[in-house]
Amino acid sequence: MITDLDCMQLAWAQARREFGQTWTNPQVGAVLVKNGRVLAQDYHHQYGKHHAEVETLDQLADPALAVGATMVVTLEPCSHYGKTPPCAKRLVAAGVARVVIGQRDPNPLVAGKGIAILEQAGIAVTVLGQTGGLNSAYNFFYQHQRPLVTLKYATSVDGKLNAAGTQRTYLTGPAALRDSQHERAGQQALLIGEQTLLVDDPSLTVRTFAMPYPPVRLVVVRDADRLPEQLHVLTDASAPVWLLSEAPTSRTWPPHVQVHVAAHWTPQAICALVAAHGLQSLQVEGGSRLLAAFLAAGVCDRVVAYVAPLALGGTALPVAQGPAAEPLALHLTAVTQLAEDVKLTYGRNR
């Protein structure tokens, strides 16, 4: 006989079919089971589209098959009207007898309200209290009221970001670059400092596949009005750009560019701005002083380091050059060989 956990494993697998398409919505999968047989399974495909439970019910050739069935879903069904109607009410209308939930929804718009709708309708509810490793940024955001912060960089084996001088040093190979694009696609906001902007002139885009809601591109600058007009982030309108300027602006900007002004853009102030816009994840991609500032502030939840088989030595720029920081305890979560480069992924000890 198929168990609740067996079905939840299927639902988690469905949820993982989505990547980079649901924006600030969580990844969710669902499976409909009746008399030990899987009737349908599906997932939340894209932000603003049907949720996983509705997609699964819509798979049925005959809606009457849902009557008396069990819906297994990775996250508590929503209870509010947003981009779509409440999934909990749809399950009630479908006539399911039981709902098995992987985890309660930490979003205060739901947070037990979906379960309450189901139970008030006489539907039996079981909560497994397991995430399946999904939605780490979504859960973190609602638990801590700030985005989950990743520090991402490429480094030489001796801990250097760039050779001495003002020219960009290319460290890693094509496999690492492709992987770093995948890392970007899992983020809702990207951040660099002014020196990285001027030296590297990055686009800060996801180029490996199309995203309906690409990450917002943030740049900390002293004076936005002094930036050269031909920079890629200013001419490439494929994703929003926020310039975090320490001086007010009088310049006319392209429609995709916003200027936010503050006297000091500390890591805490940056995270507060990102959180105020509902963005749940922020990836800091350099440079050295910005990485150091986030470490010194203790605002770091994850580190992704691409280590190249090079040694730069001498006066080359270190990964984090700036104010002293208390040691940050991390644990290694993954080691990935990418041709000649190695990707090290760490999580913060809490």
Give the secondary structure arrangement, pairings included.
Layout (H helix, E strand, L loop, with lengths): L3 H12 L13 E6 L2 E7 L8 H6 L12 E6 L11 H8 L3 E6 L9 H8 L3 E4 L8 H9 L3 E9 L3 E3 L11 H12 L3 E5 H7 L15 E6 L10 H4 L5 E5 L11 E5 L5 H10 L4 E4 L3 H9 L5 E7 L8 E2 L11 E9 L2 E8 L2
Parallel strand pairs: 3-4, 4-5, 6-12, 6-13, 8-9, 8-12, 9-10, 10-11
Antiparallel strand pairs: 1-2, 1-3, 7-14, 13-16, 15-16
Helix pairs in contact: 3-4
Q: What's the helix count?
A: 10
Strand order of the largest sheet: 11-10-9-8-12-6-13-16-15
The low-confidence runs, each spanning 5 or more residues with pLDDT under 50, are none
**Would you list the SSEs in sequence order as H and E?**
HEEHEHEHEHEEHEHEHEEHEHEEEE
Radius of gyration: 23 Å
Distance between the termini: 39 Å
Can you characterise this structure?
With 350 residues, the chain is α/β, with parallel strands linked by helices. Helices cover 24% and strands 26% of the residues. The strands form 3 sheets. The protein has a 9-stranded mixed beta sheet, sandwiched between helices. A 5-stranded mixed beta sheet has the order 2-1-3-4-5, with helices on both faces. Helix 3 (87-94) links the parallel strand 3 and strand 4. The longest helix has 12 residues, at 4-15. The mean pLDDT is 95.
